Amino acid sequence: MWIYEKKLQYPVNIKRPSARLASLIVSQLGGPDGEMGAATRYLNQRYGMPNATAIGTLTDIGSEELGHCEMIGAILYQLTRNLTPEQITDGGFDKYFVDHTTGIYPTAAAGAPFTAAAIACKGDPVADLNEDLAAEQKARVTYDNILRLSDDPDVTDVIRFLRQREIVHYQRFGEVLRKTTEDLDSQNYYAFNPEYRM
Q1: Residue 25: which of 108, 82, 119, 136 has the closest Cα?
Q2: Domains of the chain in sequence order
Q3: In this predicted model, what pLDDT tens digit does every residue of 172-193 receive, in sequence order?
Q4: 10 Å Cβ neighbour count for 149?
């Protein structure tokens, strides 16, 4: 199914460690709108899709989101390597550090660990695709918020790339929702269609 190329989708080269930025960016790994939830959501939802286009799109985007987890992990690793105890405390990374040292652990910036509650899968194509559209917008907003708080051009560069991918995913999900809805209406079997009769 996959061909794994052993390089990041976009280079991550952060020169300056920052416990403060790491404590914020960790949310895009395991937070409520993070990449881990998106990857799992899309790769699970594809089984309930009624056409090859929807299945393929969810597989493609879900796979790409796994690559984004890898990128966020690289950002976190580079931001936290060689931190001093003072930098950890001053940057607000001390609570995370106590439990995980500088290991890459999926959690929200607010401290809640990753949970399967972040994975929405209804088994209904229209409901799931609308959830996916919302998920991409929520992830984009989180990246917008990180950009507002980032003072490191190396971090900002990668975050802008990831933000742009959320916009592309949103557009692709919109196209798939339109096609899926048209197909379901034409087959007259789906409850979304007002002409549907049980």
Answers
A1: 108
A2: 19-187 (1.20.1260.10)
A3: 999 999 998 887 765 555 555 5
A4: 11
